[in-house]
Amino acid sequence: MRQSKTLLLFAIGFCCVMVSEGACNRTRYVQHNGVLVVNSTISSQVLNASGVTSVEACAMLCGMKSCSAAVFWKSSDLCQLVTVSREPGFAGNNEWRLLGSETAEAVVMKLENFEELMKPRIINVTRVFTNNGTGRIGSVQLVTIDIAGCYRIQLAGAKGGDNTYVSPDELGGRGALAAGNVSLSVGVQLSIVVGQAGGPSQSSGYSSGGGGGGSFVYRTSNNELLMAAGGGGGASYGYS
Ligand SMILES: *[C@@H]1O[C@H](CO)[C@@H](O)[C@H](O)[C@H]1NC(C)=O
Ligand SMILES: *[C@@H]1O[C@H](CO)[C@@H](O)[C@H](O)[C@H]1NC(C)=O
Ligand SMILES: *[C@@H]1O[C@H](CO)[C@@H](O)[C@H](O)[C@H]1NC(C)=O
Ligand SMILES: *[C@@H]1O[C@H](CO)[C@@H](O)[C@H](O)[C@H]1NC(C)=O
Ligand SMILES: *[C@@H]1O[C@H](CO)[C@@H](O)[C@H](O)[C@H]1NC(C)=O
Ligand SMILES: *[C@@H]1O[C@H](CO)[C@@H](O)[C@H](O)[C@H]1NC(C)=O
């Protein structure tokens, strides 16, 4: 006789006394066969609750804590509560997690829409920083990450100064462009230095423009450089 696989379905309903919508929120967990992989593209958190003696109690606890998945370890009465989120401010870590085990000693449960939650989403949180001074005056600008994820950083070095004393004008070189993707977790603060344009030549055609400043992005906490783009050279004396 063929035996069909049974799907454990945990339905946890809890009605709050004061819910204005009057609706009962039901959190549904389904069993996941094998190891559940949460990769580093999503922020996740695991909380160990000990002394949990049944898979139902573990699922209930998970529902109460609004967690996304749970692992119940039969032999050690351990219930691991897993939360994944892309919400701003969620203080999880972007790391690879292998939840559960290939052996039968662990039961892995996950929200019915777990795969939906895990789907990569592009959230447009574009921030543009420009130089906020002129010449030698400027300041380091700071940004603190509040949504964990993969960020694209595009940098441009500043243009070198022109020489306007010659005809036609001799133009300064353009700054370098650099771009790359980095994975950043919540709370990381980046320091941003935006290069400023080199000044023009000051007198006769024999003087040259100033070099453009470079642009840099580094982690504030340890000064680790993430990206840099050099500035353009200043225009030299040009024969006319
Ligand atoms: C539970 O109810 C609240 C309020 O109606 C709603 O915002 C939330 O999305 C519900 N949660 C689930 C998992 O359906
Ligand atoms: C939670 O339990 C797992 C499995 O026993 C263990 O590997 C992990 O180190 C525990 N985490 C914490 C924070 O105690
Ligand atoms: C991470 O997991 C999501 C959801 O399962 C998947 O769509 C994505 O391709 C995975 N990314 C990597 C780098 O493994
Ligand atoms: C994101 O927003 C920026 C600024 O509002 C815009 O220039 C850019 O086109 C947007 N990108 C996507 C993929 O929507
Ligand atoms: C330059 O950036 C700093 C730090 O973000 C800020 O405090 C300052 O007001 C900015 N200055 C200008 C002129 O925008
Ligand atoms: C970096 O992210 C952009 C989307 O912003 C994507 O088009 C590009 O393929 C990514 N590059 C790499 C090397 O992953």
Automatic annotation (TrEMBL):
Keywords: ATP-binding, Cell membrane, Disulfide bond, Glycoprotein, Kinase, Membrane, Nucleotide-binding, Receptor, Signal, Transferase, Transmembrane, Transmembrane helix, Tyrosine-protein kinase. Coiled coil: none annotated. GO terms for molecular function: ATP binding; transmembrane receptor protein tyrosine kinase activity. Residues 148-235 form the ALK/LTK-like glycine-rich domain. GO terms for cellular component: plasma membrane. Pfam families: ALK_LTK_GRD. This is receptor protein-tyrosine kinase. It comes from the Eukaryota. The keyword Metal-binding does not apply.
